[in-house]
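Hi P.,

Sorry for the delay on this. The queue was packed all week, but I finally got your sequence through. Input first:
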Amino acid sequence: MAKKERKFYLVQEDLLPEAILKTVLAKELLLRGDAATVNEAVEKVDLSRSAFYKYKDGVFPFHQWSPGVTVTLAMVLEHRSGILSKVLGILAAARANILTINQNVPVHGLASVTVTFETAGLEGDLDNITKRIRELDGVREVNPVGHSLV
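Then the structure:
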């Protein structure tokens, strides 16, 4: 099955739909601790929970993807020798400073893996790096799921 390539765009704020902007605001409330729960955050910005969950993993303020942040990639890898090593090789070649690697016990031949790394010295952009990882044989999914300012 062919993997669908994800594309990222830099879009001017006033062109974004209100639900996407409110999702960013709700995420910022949670990050700063101004809201303790998703329910509280979405109520404060007048956004439905379903809209929040629809957009939360796909929208980030621009500064959060710039150099000097940590990024967490969640991946599903086939349980075969060398696949994780190849993923780490791509990250090392891009000069990502790896902070943590977590791998769950494989179930039905698939293992969930998260890798968190700093982007300060990153050579290349995150889109190209994740694309190269997705293209590896044995990589089923790659999703940037977390990030924070260093």
